[in-house]
Amino acid sequence: MKDKLLKEFRDYFHRDAENIFFCPGRVNLIGEHIDYNGGKVMPCAISKGTYLAVSKNKEKKIRFACLDFPEKANLHIQSSYSKTGKQWFNYPLGVINYLLQNGNEISGLDMMYAGDLPVGAGLSSSASIEVLTIFALNELFGLGIPKVDMAIASKKVENEFIGVSCGIMDQFAVAMGQMNKAILLDCESLKHEFIPFDTGEYVLLIVNSNKQRALADSKYNERFAECGKTLKNLKSELKIENLCDLDLKAFEMNQHLIESDILKKRARHVISENERVMQASDALKRGDINTFGLLMFVSHQSLKEWYEVSGVELDTIVDFSKNYKGCIGARMTGAGFGGCAIALVKNDLINDFSGQLIAYYKTTLGYEPTVFESGAADGVRAIRF
Ligand code: GLA
Predict the structure, then answer these.
(1) What's the pTM?
(2) How many domains does the chain have?
């Protein structure tokens, strides 16, 4: 990828790239739809991600190109930018806009992106390109931004420039990831802990359902709004700041405050999932990967039944995994409505599992999913060349 990017950069910009940076994607191991409810999540960065080859130019121009999309841009440096259509370069443009608006000086840049992360598959390709851009600009212009603040800024770009009301999990995971570690992140305080992700004789597989996440953004915003309403209902009598301030017992005692059955279901997922994250972290810490796997299955069930963000594609993958002897845990990961699932599969059965799953999925849905292996990987970084 690196050599291809360097060559394409030279062909397109007629000069050499001076720097290459890389930012991974992420999977969430457990703790789904929790980050915007002030609870704990447990993601990790993965090995696939987005690359950026970049050189400064003296022409006061920002030039964007990407190997994965045809659109290019050639923009004068301005004091601010606004989003244009649905182009891929809105993500780096949003980051540049954020930096300019916060008083940072930026000179001209020739930037070429390329990724090996499936786009729109729920592996945080957007967080990856945002954090990649702010990391690169921080290095190139010596802005002195700590990585946690890069994640916070990238989330802001996603919320305000792109218009998706996501939480902090994705940006945090791709910025802060560490090899072989899961990140236990408190999304309210941003306190975090790296827990060894020791899967023993099991391997983490990512299964891309290859179902386009067409409704994902609107449904995501709908769930976000539902949680806000539920919190408002509960706040009428309780002193809480977030849904995750309640444990299941307190929820049971106070659910009469919630105005509808749908909102009760949403809250039940959020509050039980937050408790599962703590159980999962305890299990990992004592090396009990079987319990961790079991919690993945329970998490999926809750996302399917209570939060209603799964779908036939993700359910097909998880149902198959449940019935496969060498798989100890599986669940959808990310926002849902298509995208990816993860599974813990015995290391000598990876090919067998993948082959059988692909055949089963194809018979059920008429097309194939894609399966690949990924451990927990390092976050955003410069690539030496
Ligand atoms: C998307 C969002 C995250 C998080 C997950 C669901 O990935 O970007 O902030 O809410 O969905 O857990």
Answers:
(1) 0.96
(2) 2
